[in-house]
Each structure stands twice: as C-alpha cells, then as structure tokens.
Amino acid sequence: MLKILTVFGTRPEAIKMAPLIRELQGQRERITCRVAVTAQHREMLDQVLELFHIEPAYDLDIMAPGQSLFDITRRALTGLEQVLAAEEPDLVLVHGDTTTTFVAALAAFYRQIPVGHVEAGLRTGNKYSPFPEEMNRHLTGVVADLHFAPTATARANLLREGVAPEKIFVTGNTVIDALLATVDPGYRFHDPILESINYRERRVLLVTTHRRENLGEPMRDIYLALRDIVTAYDDVEIVFPVHRNPRVRQVVREVLGELPRVHLIEPLSYLPFVHLMDRCYLVLTDSGGMQEEAPALGKPVLVLRDTTERPEAVEAGTVRLVGTGRQAVRDETARLLDDPAHYRQMAEAVNPYGDGRAARRICRAILYHFGLAAEPPEPFQPSGFCIKGSAL
C-alpha cells in the first residue's frame, strides 16, 4: 500500500489539490492518502475544505495576526516535523508556490522522503516577482523528485534547470478539474448585490488585486484607470472583492469608494467567486490562478503585473499582460469594450491549461513511478476545451 501525504495551507492550494485528493482516495486498493494543512490562511481555506468535503488528518492552525514570512516558515516547519515523524509517508505531495509548499518540501527532504510537486515548472525569471512565490517554486523544484508540470512550457523550464526528463509529467492543471466539478449554469448568488446585477445587459468587470509588489502607487494607478472606465461607459459595472490587507483597502476606498456601479465587496468563497467569474464580461487581476481559470470559462484576462509565470495564456491570446500603469490599464480595457472582434479573439482562443483530467494523469504518474502501473499517462495536449457554464 502506497502511503501519500498531501500538504497545503491556502485556499488556492486547496482548490487545486481537491480533485487530486479525490482521485487518490479512489485508489483505495493501492493508495492511502492523508491530508495535512498548515492553515497558513484560515477562513478561506476552511470554506474550500467544506465545499470539497476534505477532512485533514492534521491541522497545524499556524495563522496568526500580522504574521510574517519568517513566522509562517518557522511554525510550519516545526509542525510538519512532527507530522512526518508520525506518518512516515512514501511520498509528500505539495502544490504550487506558497511558503507552505516550500517548507513542506524542505521538511520532507530533511526526513529523506520523496516529494511530488504539483503545478511544477512555472517561472518568471525574476526572483522578486511574484514575491515570494517565484523563489518558492524554484526551491521546491530543487527538492522535488516528481514534477507534475501543467504545460509543455513548464516542462521546458524544468529541463533547462537540469531536471531529468523521466521525472517530469505534463498533466494539465488541476484547477480546470475543480472548475468542471463546480460550475453550475443554474447557480444563484446568496449575496443580494451579486444576484441583483443583470449580467446580460451590463458588462461586468471582475477585479482582484493583492500582490505585494503592487502595493502603493501601482495599485492606485490601477484603481484610477478603473475609475476612468466606469465613468466613461454607462453599461459597465465593476465587482471588486477587496483583499483584507489594510493597505489595499485604504487605497480602494480612496479612489473607488462611493462611485456608482462599483461594488466593493468582501472576499468571496470559491463557489460564488467561480460563478461570478463565469458571468462577468472580462477579468482584471494580478492573481496567478485566475489566468488559468478565466480562459477555461471563455473570459479575456488583463493581467495587472509586469511579469507572469504563466506565459502560455499570453501566447495563446486568452491573456494580455498590461502592467499597472493608469493609461495602459485604461486603454486595454477600453479596447476590449469597444472592439467586439478583439474581444471574441481573446474569449475564443484555445485554453492552454487543462481538460479536466489532470488529477487522473497525476495519479497514474505516481502509480507508474512506484511500479504500480505499467505505462505512464499520456501527456496533456491543449485543445479547444471550454467549460460551458452560463457564459454570455
């Protein structure tokens, strides 16, 4: 019996690991899968655990007010030392780029336990952008024994860094698996603001910002551009789930507070957020994960960053990297609002990130690596796959 421990600590990790946990737990004759969470983020993590019916065997509950990267690293490493000693798994699975991801990989290395890295190989080439995620990915990749790259581009990054080809599996991204299991055309919002919007007659811009490197003037410029847009277009509404960081909230209120057709709301749990993304007209974000999710729903994405570790969507044409300058953000948004052909070109471009079978491929790759499957999975190939929700 192959014993696997999955470790994560934030909402995005939980969303992307949920389909894989379900797949691994379905292999009961060959695999025992246990879950440990650091709860680097608490409330938003708990919402996803409940939604996907994940019951952690270990919950370190490390989140504390005003926590720093030093705090997260120290508490997670100490807690995971005890978890690994108790479990002694054959493989530790981590996801993506969080501090929990790197620390869990390091803890497994200290106990000489193999590490599998889900969503491996994403790179910007700038160790401070995004910070600290870029270096978390690099450092986890150095420790990892199995690399589950979502795309061929991610695989090429790993090969350039000297990873052995037989240790890399191109799987697609599990976030598409999660979307496929979640989007419901008949979904109704519980929030009265979201339920009251006429998504067919109003063009709704979904906005999120939270990156450390965008704090301060870059965010102010973004919000000024949004103010310009909502002032210029009578049929545009902005829905902005505002990050809880006080530095974000202060500037948002100063620039966008009290404007008509701008809805500054609390952060949403995964279920309503996915359906808001499905029903909006376009997305403006500095998030990484939304660059993968929105294209699968046929939504153009303007990325409010100067770099991206997800260049596949830029190359495919579903995503445009616009930076944080007021004029650039305003002009690119206006182009999508004014030019239907340009909008269709982005909305209908090939989704490069997945087909809903990533978790199955990863599970098969693990079984193959440990001699429990005769053949490796077929690599993921991009196609015209698109989730049919209530897209306009």
Automatic annotation (TrEMBL):
UniProt domain UDP-N-acetylglucosamine 2-epimerase: residue ranges: 27-366
Pfam family name, one: Epimerase_2
InterPro entries: UDP_GlcNAc_Epimerase_2_dom (IPR003331), WecB-like (IPR029767)
Molecular functions per Gene Ontology: UDP-N-acetylglucosamine 2-epimerase activity
Keywords in alphabetical order: Isomerase
Gene3D superfamilies membership: Glycogen Phosphorylase B
Claim: Isomerase is one of the keywords in the record: yes
Family statement drawn from the similarity comment of this UniProt entry: Belongs to the UDP-N-acetylglucosamine 2-epimerase family.
Protein name: UDP-N-acetylglucosamine 2-epimerase (non-hydrolyzing)
Natural source organism: Desulfofundulus thermobenzoicus
